[in-house]
Write a structure and sequence with these properties.
Helix content is 41%, strand content 19%. With 585 residues, the protein is an alpha+beta fold. Strands 7, 8, 9, 10, 11 and 17 form a six-stranded antiparallel sheet that branches. Residues 1-263 form the Biopterin-dependent aromatic amino acid hydroxylase family profile domain. Keywords: Iron, Metal-binding, Monooxygenase, Oxidoreductase.
Amino acid sequence: MNSSFETNPLIERLPKHLKQFIKPQDYDEYTPINQAVWRYVMRKNVDYLGKVAHSSYLDGLRQTGISIESIPNMYGMNRILKEIGWAAVAVDGFIPPNAFMEFQAYNVLVIASDIRQLEHIEYTPAPDIIHEGAGHAPIIANPEYAEYLRRFGEIGCKAISSARDYEMYEAIRLLSILKEAEGTPQNEIEAAEKRVDELQNDMGELSEMAQIRNLHWWTVEYGLIGTVDNPKIYGAGLLSSIGESAWCMTDNVKKIPYDISAVNQSFDITKPQPQLYVTPDFAHLNLILEEFANKMALRTGGLSGVRKLIQSKALGTIELSTGVQISGVFTNVIENEGKPVYIQTTGKTALSYREKELVGHGTEYHSEGFGSPIGKLKGINLAIEDMSPRDLRAYAIFEGETVTLEFEGDIKVSGEIITGSRNLQGKIITISFKNCTVTHNDTILFQPEWGIYDMAVGKEVLSAYSGPADVRSFDLITHVPSSKTIKAQKTPERLKLEALYQTVREIREGKTGENLETIFTALQKEHPKDWLLSVEIAELAHKNNNHDLETKVLAHLEQLKSSRPEVAHLISNGLELIFENESVN
């Protein structure tokens, strides 16, 4: 798989646990109909968005080298994105939110390389290359916005999830796949919708991850910029939806000044949004992000941070005041007067300092969990970490001494000190004991038969966040999605239609002298319901002043508008691009 990463050094620097989500783009899988869908959406978007999108959008299209005529190739995108300090990788649909945001923290844009079906040309609930490549990529050419995106990823990937969040991710992923796939039985879609509704109505208190995903949705995906009375589009979901980009500009969609309250405004990914938030400028986005980050366990730590990690039932990290970091699945905390006085992990655990695993404290050594007191010794104002060598000697905290340390909250550690380790500032961060017993009142937390007792030193929990401190400490190559994207069926009828689309494309590019009238006759006879190729033929007939063919095609399209009213506006939109200021009914 490494051969697919060669085009940008940023991708080489990604950790292995992120590389597991990357897949080859396989450009040859895009069909002529896929290319026509891209071209239609991009032509319509550039024409319309030039009026309503933030000025960075059209500038970004030019800077990122995204073509209106053809689906972008990841290699080409990476060569150009490199110039603005970013990269792009292909993935299979939705990936877990923490991973998605961590990619952003590395300045890497995640692109779902599949493309929506013709039937979903206006909007798809599934992420696709139109949404990612034409929505996200151009706007990151704006340096201020790009920094917001990177910073968002850096903070967002540390957000603590609830046990329900991952269920919701899998449910939404499945629903988006089923809705985008052709021929999915309605009962399967309804069952998936029901599951999403059930989870949305039973999420309980929103986790940090749920809240920051809300912020991401109302800014990165569906954000407006400017004033409530005169907003411009910058959110990728709107930039890539020819239906919703127009809808959102009407009075049917409520416009709200963007503030921190957006963290509690949930969304339905399968429906147009009834309200949108307007930021005055990109700098305001960072202000709100920092306001939210200040409330995260990442910055507040404490008892509530430890509890969030326990409730998540997932790998997380706490950082103590000495800088020592404990990474594992937290399962218990003993509290006293609103503070944690003892923490416990279960299973593989690692200790780190400044995101680097401490020698001898990896998951093989701490394979069955880790527990440690936190706080000050009872009756002593001076914390262990603040003691000078003379203080340590006075309290018998010294190698070879048998000592009983009584912590606030009735945690007692009794044993013979073997050794300790210090941080760069000289503060003790770990102490190891033999023949050690640890108790909380009458409850035994550790006993001598279990071996060496390693105690982390710290008077308080400064930070708690999702994931490990040192990503190399754990095997994170574990992601197996419960659902995979469904490819369009290649029926004989479909293959014939694809061949017609390809021929028209080659005619437009001057690669063949095939007769357009012959193609149009075959299209009418064998594929009478298809509308997009007729629009492309009308475009070429108009360009070549073939008035007879143009008249026939326009008559056929009028019939289609009557027989297929659901696509009438799409046909009209396509013809408006051809005839520009000429009147089209």
